[in-house]
Structure formats: structure tokens, C-alpha cells
Amino acid sequence: MSENAIFDEQVQDAADKISALLRAEGELSSWQIKTRLHLSSSLMYLALGRLQARGLASLAPDQINYKVRSAQQN
């Protein structure tokens, strides 16, 4: 597997974990996501960007963090 494919898989895995967490919780801060899932900031923001681009999450600035809300709430 190429380095690019491995990287893409890591981003998708993080996005899947974030999406599941957001579906369960509804809304979290980016800091809560980072600490609960033990993600690096870079990986977390790449995964959040992917979720936002696909319409699965919305982000709103909240001081130094972001409020992240699932677009697939129960």
C-alpha cells in the first residue's frame, strides 16, 4: 500500500470515529474530540474538513476551538 493510501485511510478512520462520536453526543468542541479520541490536531482537522465537505458535520468558531455538530443527529 502506498504512503498516500495509508494516509488517506488514517484520515478516513479518524473521520469515521469522529462521526460516530458526534452521532452519540450531538455537539462537542474540537478540544473534546481531540482528547477523547487521542488524535493529533492535524489529523483531527483533516478529518473534520472531510466530514464538513461531505455534509456530515458543521463547524462554528468558539473562541480558540470549534463547536462541531453532527448533521446526522438521531
Summarize the structure.
With about 70 residues, the chain is an alpha+beta fold. It has helices at about 5-25, 30-35, 40-55, and strands spanning about 25-30, 55-60, 65-70.
> SSE order in H/E notation?
HEHHEE
Q: Tell the overall outline.
A: globular
Number of domains: 1
Helical residues, percent: 55-70%
Counted beta strands: 3
What can you tell me about this protein's structure?
Helix content is 59%, strand content 20%. By secondary structure, the protein is an alpha+beta fold. It has one domain: Arc Repressor Mutant, subunit A (Orthogonal Bundle). The protein has a 3-stranded antiparallel beta sheet. Helix 1 crosses helix 3 (41-53). It is globular.
List keywords for this structure.
alpha+beta, 20% strand, globular, Arc Repressor Mutant, subunit A, 74 residues, 3-stranded antiparallel beta sheet
Q: How are the secondary structure elements laid out?
A:
Elements: H1 3-25, E1 27-29, H2 30-37, H3 41-53, E2 57-62, E3 65-70
Helix pairs in contact: 1-3
